[in-house]
Design brief:
It is a single chain. This protein is mainly alpha-helical and about 230 residues long. It folds into 2 domains: about 10-80, Orthogonal Bundle (Arc Repressor Mutant, subunit A), CATH 1.10.10.10; about 85-225, GntR ligand-binding domain-like (Four Helix Bundle (Hemerythrin (Met), subunit A)). About 70% of the residues lie in helices and about 5% in strands. The chain has 10 helices and 2 strands. The protein has a two-stranded antiparallel ribbon. β1 and β2 form a beta hairpin. The longest helix is centred in the middle third of the chain and has 25 residues, at about 90-115. It starts with 7 loop residues before the first helix and ends in a 7-residue tail after the last helix.
Length: about 230
């Protein structure tokens, strides 16, 4: 999850994630150090650390045990499959193939299961993304947030936990791509289509729109498009 424009709490979450998953400074089931000690070691405030920890709890990397503290998840196997900072072109193709397998279904579930409040948040996020794209703002991070909100609205815990891996692939693809202008157009118009079907709660249409969107990105990035 690289990017200098992210909030301090997001950067702290990434650093803590790397300590757990990549550097393996903690083992599955370990208790995190106390809040003051960990905040000092990361060079952040306790408030920032709490926000970062809450993010990793939502991703299933950390869990809270009442009266005992915050612990590393007992099962990190899902997160250990990929090196988050060194995804090869081939692995990116694999990851986008996985996106094509489950994100359209995720979109359909969101149409069915999302609360009205969740949909309102998704609609507002889509508008923010388009504004940032048109003003050369930090749209990639916010577009990832748009997809994360759709995943959360599916109310499927496995899909939600997959998103740190998905985001790593998306970030790596953005850094490798020299076709950002084409991606900008894809994001604007494909997001509009997806939001339109969400407004209607048209699951089949939303599923198709997400599938088309991912194929557009695959083709633009040149990720073995002919094989997917």
């Amino acid at each position: 999850m690289p990017g200098d424009n992210r909030s301090l709490s997001e950067r702290t979450a990434t650093e803590l994630y790397n300590m757990i998953v990549l550097q393996k400074k903690f083992s599955a089931g370990d208790k995190l150090p106390n809040e003051t000690e960990l905040a000092q070691s990361l060079g952040v405030s306790r408030t920032t650390l709490r926000e970062a920890v809450h993010y990793l709890i939502a991703q299933g990397i950390l869990s809270v045990q009442r009266g005992r503290g915050t612990f590393i998840s007992d099962d990190l196997s899902m997160f250990n499959k990929y090196d988050m900072g060194a995804l090869s072109h081939a692995r990116l193709a694999d990851m986008y193939e996985i996106r094509l397998m489950f994100e359209p279904q995720c979109m359909m579930l969101a149409c069915i299961r999302a609360t009205d409040e969740e949909l309102d948040g998704i609609f507002a996020q889509a508008k923010l993304v388009e504004t940032l794209v048109r003003t050369d703002g930090n749209w990639p991070d916010e577009d990832q947030r748009f997809h994360e909100m759709i995943a959360a609205a599916s109310h499927n815990e496995f899909i939600i936990r997959m998103f740190p891996i998905i985001n790593a692939a998306v970030n790596e693809a953005m850094e490798m791509s020299d076709n950002i202008e084409a991606l900008k157009n894809i994001v604007i118009y494909d997001n509009r289509d997806m939001v339109g079907f969400l407004h209607l709660r048209d699951g089949a249409g939303a599923k198709s729109a997400m599938s088309i969107h991912i194929r557009h990105v695959i083709n633009t990035l040149g990720l073995n498009a002919g094989e997917l």
